[in-house]
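Marked as duplicate of an earlier ticket. Keeping the data here for the record.
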Amino acid sequence: MEFRANCKPTAQRCSLAIVERRGRKRFPLKLSLSVRGSGVSPTGEIHTECRDVSSQGVYFFLQEPLNSGSVVEILLTLPSEITQGEPVRVRCEARVQRTETLREGRVGIAAKIERYRFLPGKRERRRAS
């Protein structure tokens, strides 16, 4: 997101416009997810939630910031509102684009999804065993 001021030299007022740079639709969903990878936790994964998700990115919350450029693995379940069918589990490899310190001791993390893989659903796992 980018902010642009629109001021005319003779005018006393300025307007502030928000210019959206994202090319994909974001879904404002609070989804449970798990995160692991470089800089997250050497002992495993951290369970948290996201604020929104798109086909190319996800914005989620942690207690500590991550370095920009860090690679993380994210596991989330897309609900039927998105899939128009059964919920779908997705494992994503993503790269941290930016972090934002928020109140309540939380850090917002914007990550760009570089690769993803759909995981088998419950029915498919039962058949495979």
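See parent ticket for discussion. The mean pLDDT is 81.
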